[in-house]
Protein: NAD(P)-dependent alcohol dehydrogenase
Amino acid sequence: MIKVTGYAAKHSYSRLKPYEFEREEAGAHEVEIDVLYCGVCHSDIHQVKNEWSNTVYPCVPGHEIVGRVTKVGPAVKRHAVGDIVGVGCMIDSCGQCEACKCGDQNYCGSPNSWLATYNGPMVPKSQAGENIYGKDNTFGGYSNLLVVKEDFVLKIPASLKPEVAAPILCAGVTTYSPMKHWGVKAGDKVGIIGMGGLGHMAAKIAKAMGAEVTLFTTTKEKIEEAQKLGFQAVLEKDKKALEELEKSFDFMLSTVPEKHDLNPFVELLKRDSVLCVVGALEPLAPTDNMAMAQMRRSVAGSLIGNLAETQEVLDFCAEHGIGPEIEMIRIQDVNDAYKKVEKGDVRFRYVIDMASLKEEIAGEQ
Ligand SMILES: [Zn+2]
Ligand SMILES: [Zn+2]
Structure:
């Protein structure tokens, strides 16, 4: 066993604090990773606070992880010691079901679903019966070391800064996957609702795909920030602006991480177009089926992305020279960072520099 230090929440109401635990040594097909950077995703906060009612404590969050390979199992072929690699939301899936056979590990149909990088199987053992992964809780990237199956470890292209690559592993692929699935292409008009970690990343990816991008935000200050990044931006409550945009979008993506009304945006879709929701994982207010039926519009959902898409979006960002706007923080400041994320104060993704954790560990010895 390997001694690991992370930051964990012990209860839904507690702050993240240093927490020591053990990981198993890398098996034949596994890779040991020295964690260098980890992005702070809004899901981390939902999970720490048990807002999806499935958190197993203690909870060590973090699923936007970039690190350096320090050890490989004897059967590992894809990675070598010294490689800069990434780990996203998943660290395993059943490999047997129809979805896994198609390469869609993120829609794994096994009773335990896919194995999340932290908080174990998305479906708890109590609900799913036998646990195929033998793990009821997994500990994520807010820690100094990780051991992961090689197939679930991504390659970070050399031209991407490792700290910039981190948020691509969740925010990037979560927005890239639906845009690819619904065929966003050059010349399309794409609307992105919400301008946080996911939204600003979605806008950059859509633009790199050749689309004309409009961001929708509730925050006045973000209008100017969106324009600075080269996007058109509209204030959601600007009824006149929304009216002018009716029936004009080929695809829309909602990245808002909480309950919100989709109806004003359904009106903006062209005939046969799709509004996909990736931010909120909860029931939303019903959409008016008259508006949907009259233009054969669809409202859809999408969950993260599969492994191939995760590698693709990393390579895509490297090729197009794009990446998230990040603010680096020390792990000791993560609780304050959570509050700012909840208030929408971050521009646009916090990334934890794990050197701060290593300094803390060294200081204790
Ligand atoms: Zn995430
Ligand atoms: Zn499966």
